Amino acid sequence: MMDKYLVINYIVVEPELVLVGATDNQRWDWDTQDGYSGADAKTLVTVTLKGSLDSKYAIQEEAQFYCALGDPLRKLAMAYVYELFDIVWKIKKARLEETATREQYMGVAVKSNKE
């Protein structure tokens, strides 16, 4: 049986916003094996930071899920939110631009930090 984990497949970086989305590894494999980038695989979860590191106000953190209530991938999408937020904070603190972020993080496997 194949291990299930998330793979980063969606990235948006703007001056006051960092958004990272992820799909499951099986959908990523199907998409990339067919010659696509992986970005077209169904995104199951996104995490977003809104705000500026230079602001006196707190940066807003947000997670969104794109799985139906009975979807077996719902639990997987929710299981890696902490790890996804670690990644978006690294991007934000490094002040990476979108191109550099895509080169570094697109296709990265997201597995538990608990291991």
Q: Which outline best applies?
A: globular
Mean residue pLDDT: 93
* Number of distinct helices: 4
Total individual domains: 1
Task: Output the radius of gyration.
Answer: 14 Å
Low-pLDDT parts are none
- How many extended strands? 5
* Strand order in the sheet with the most strands: 4-3-2-1-5
User: Distance between termini?
Assistant: 19 Å
Helix content: 25-40%
- List SSEs in N-to-C order: EEHEEHHHE
Summarize the structure.
The chain is an alpha+beta fold and 115 residues long.
Provide an overview of this structure:
There is one protein chain. With 115 residues, the chain is α+β, with helices and mostly antiparallel strands. It has one domain. The chain has four helices and five strands. The chain has helices spanning 25-33, 74-79, 81-94, 98-105; strands spanning 6-14, 17-24, 45-50, 60-65, 109-110. A five-stranded antiparallel sheet has the order 4-3-2-1-5. The mean pLDDT is 93.
Features of this protein?
five-stranded antiparallel β-sheet
Secondary structure blueprint with pairings:
Elements: E1 6-14, E2 17-24, H1 25-33, E3 45-50, E4 60-65, H2 74-79, H3 81-94, H4 98-105, E5 109-110
Antiparallel strand pairs: 1-2, 1-5, 2-3, 3-4
